[in-house]
Design a protein that fits this description.
Strand content: 5-15%
Family: Belongs to the short-chain dehydrogenases/reductases (SDR) family.
InterPro entries: NAD(P)-bd_dom_sf, SDR_fam
Helix content: 25-40%
Keywords: Oxidoreductase
Order of helices and strands: EHEHEHEHEHEHHE
Largest sheet: 7 strands, parallel
CATH superfamily: NAD(P)-binding Rossmann-like Domain
Structural class: alpha/beta
Number of helices: 7
Strand order of the largest sheet: 3-2-1-4-5-6-7
Protein name: SDR family NAD(P)-dependent oxidoreductase
CATH class: Alpha Beta
Radius of gyration: 17 Å
Number of strands: 7
Pfam families: adh_short
CATH topology: Rossmann fold
Amino acid sequence: MADWKTATPSAEAFKDRVILVTGAGQGIGAAAALELAKLGATVILLGRNEKKLSRTYDAIEAAGGAQPAAIPMDLAKMGEAELNQLGVLIQKEFGRLDGILHCANGFNHLSPLSNQKLDEWVDMFRVNVAAPFAMTRALFPLLEKSPDAAVLVLGETHAFEPNAYWGGFSVTKSAQQNWVEIAASEWDKMANVRINLLVPGPIQSPFRLATHPAELKDSLPVTEAILPAITYWLGSASTGQSGQTLFFAKN
């Protein structure tokens, strides 16, 4: 486990695997989807912005990856019907699901608690916690049929280092760890299914640029630096390791 931050997967480490990536339109989600496709995975791209999903889709095809699927979906607004349809679609089109990478990130703005609204907190909770939970639950019948399935949730540093102005975002992201640990505990008899929380820390991404606009971009690891960690925890190398919170880079 000591080498997970720099582990090098084999060229076809994800051959014949189907992986769903949320937040696949930009940042870490887009980079991870492209990398998984290069390693042989069939990737299902999910995000709320169809144009951004199309860019990731085209990048995968240009790189010679298996034809992906792109599914526009707003996690702040989707409900049980959409989730059930997603499961039916994946079963019909692919017949299997071997992993979920939850990269979608619900964030409004930095502000004092006195300025934050109820609807903002509710939307962030839906995107950061409730939707990933409900999606994983809805797709679990497919995951448990896989010989080796992994769910990887991308966390955020401020969930563990609460500071002024991070408000609802920090609070909702902190709930991810509880969900991951509860799920891992409930799945502990199923050796073929695991779930973990990966906290990227300071890394180049559209989100980091939005929250730290004065920060020197070149002082941070590039987005692609985290890809070995993602492929490790989604791949067979992490079999048997579940319920962990993993920090890629520290502030």
